[in-house]
Design brief:
homodimer; 368 residues; Rossmann fold; Tyrosyl-Transfer RNA Synthetase; seven-stranded mixed sheet
């Protein structure tokens, strides 16, 4: 694989992935065709192609339909409050948990330290906040193993054992020239993904890792190592589903901590969110007159993205919004008022729901 | 520092260090001058300049003389029975333990895995054997913390935390292009050296690491990281003493597992050791006649090295042997007979002493 291609997907960068087609051709990511219909139900992120590709997802579909054990593994880097983009992964986890999966949810505090310099003592508080969000969104803690990476010795030990099969050039090709801590954190993440297959958790099993497409390098590294250590551990190669990345509210390619106007968080003041939505980039035209004549461009619009990804579950309603914009029938002012209404009412409810999960979350993280 | 210089010292290689002078000039290793006389007593490895250099050893001398706490840290890579060369480090540890140091003795099973591919399950048995040797040589377990690297989470955590300050080029410069596991093991070894300074063991303290000169790259990396994390942990830069490397019995520059005729182990059959000594390279001349005329060359002789490093504690006796060889008064046959006698009687006693320490060693390593 050429370096230039590897560069295309960078989990720690913010490179826009303009052409999803390339991923199928050059990286061997598979299309969802045929598999979607085998699922017992189809939430909006599947119907709308937000999950657009996979690796070995058929293994998970089979486990679901035969009611065999499988794991759903994901995590969060505790660098701050969960932003709206991250709830997509959580919704996927909750969905597959309801279909029979056991969830492994990693608080990637080592990665938060290596990549962002956040000391473990500090990320502990952030982690609590993140876990409260996850439970308030519907993650069932009774069918979840939620853990802090830094406290999970099996994960570190897997990293140490698997590292022997990783060449330096593999690390450089995937992650570029970075410090040793980041490489270690990448290997520890491989340990996280394989953790559900250890004897302690019942041994080898299909494992789904629902990720943003920018995380594919981790998946490839992990599958490569799972293959190399198949004999020792009996690993089944982990499966992955890939979702598209939601645009920043400011029109940037990705919501980013570096740019607070590009996103809002689940615990943010409703006033602040309203301000950001009012000032968001849209697919509107320079003047109202032009927009009435030419119509808007919802396919370029972060506000429409919010509906499509999260806030409008009903497809007819989404289509209606799309066409009213496209035909110039609805201008951005009216649309934004609607966005502010649905978003802030969701956020208010969520913030209210959170209160019931604080004690449980402290308990899960063993905090005093 | 130029790469060509860094290559000079390679802890995993077997490059002969021909010119110790270079180490003082180019690597900043300090001479022992002035410090030796401040020690309350001088064992042969100090009197004879086998320990020939140091970094910040004055800090340890001060702690000894003021009876302040200090640690002595070393370890063994459990790849097989201890060979005779490794007992030098053990003797140094035992010596400094008697002068008040608390010993930290690491069974470097992670390194044995990364560097030699020995699974942790297997090195466990080897470790037992190594610990029995250490105790039989006189290590006092009541003033020692003996641990397996793979079981010591604080060590792994230090590696993870410190790794953030290590660039890839540092690793390449010190260790060359190796797999990720070896780099991780190098960082874990840094964790080992700093372990005695954690709060759990009473916090920052002078720490002496007695090593073969080939281990200096680890020391430099560790001191660099101790400095970088001084503020967070209060680390005192670890001190090191450097000893010369004993020649192989076959005349090679270093005793090496790859060449069984170059060394013997502490648990080897006396017959096998006798055979190796009989066939050892010496500083003798091609014919007896020549040797009587020209004299032997003890400074090139591995048998004389054995006396100097380990088996002749009395300086007068050593000098007598030296001159009898040098003047041609004693030929290699007579000398080897003497060597066989002192070595095998030491080995027999050691093997007898071992029996009393097996249970204690099992207990230390938590083996059933």
């Amino acid at each position: 694989m050429k370096r230039s291609n590897m560069d295309l997907i960078d989990p720690w960068g913010s490179i826009e992935i303009e052409n999803y087609e390339k991923l199928f051709e050059e990286f061997g990511i598979q299309r969802m065709d045929g598999l979607v219909d085998k699922l017992p139900c189809k939430p909006s992120f599947i119907r709308r192609g937000i999950i657009f590709g996979h690796r070995d997802f058929e293994r998970i579909v089979e486990a679901i339909n035969k009611q065999q054990p499988f794991a759903v593994m994901s995590g969060i880097k505790p660098t701050g409050p969960l932003h709206i983009g991250t709830i997509l992964t959580l919704r996927e986890m909750i969905f597959f948990q309801k279909l029979g999966g056991v969830v492994f949810y990693c608080i990637a505090d080592i990665e938060a330290y290596e990549d962002n310099g956040i000391p473990l003592e500090e990320s502990e508080k952030i982690a609590l906040d993140n876990v409260v969000d996850a439970l308030a969104l519907g993650l069932d803690p009774s069918r979840s193993y939620i853990y802090r990476q830094s406290k999970e010795n099996d994960v570190k030990d897997l990293a140490i054992i698997l590292a022997r099969a990783v060449t330096l050039s593999t690390m450089e090709a995937i992650y570029g020239v970075r410090h040793m801590g980041l490489y270690m954190s990448a290997l520890i993440q491989v340990g996280d993904i394989l953790l559900p297959q250890l004897k302690r958790f019942g041994g080898p099993k299909p494992t789904l890792v629902p990720v943003g497409i920018d995380q594919d390098p981790h998946i490839r590294l992990c599958r490569d190592l799972a293959h190399k250590f198949k004999e020792k551990y009996g690993f089944i190669l982990p499966s992955a589903t890939y979702h598209k990345i939601i645009r920043g509210l400011d029109g940037s390619s990705k919501m980013s901590k570096r740019n607070p106007m590009s996103y809002f968080t689940l615990t943010e003041d409703v006033e602040s969110i309203t301000f950001k939505l009012k000032n968001a980039f849209t697919g509107g035209r320079p003047t109202a007159k032009e927009q009435r004549t030419l119509g808007g461009e919802p396919e370029k619009c972060p506000i429409f993205d919010l509906y499509k990804f999260f806030f409008v579950e009903d497809d007819d309603k989404l289509l209606e919004t799309y066409w009213r914009c496209k035909t110039g029938d609805m201008l951005c002012g009216e649309d934004k008022a609607f966005a502010i209404e649905v978003v802030t009412s969701f956020i208010k409810e969520h913030q209210e729901r959170r209160k019931a999960f604080i004690d449980k979350s402290r308990e899960i993280l063993n905090l005093d």
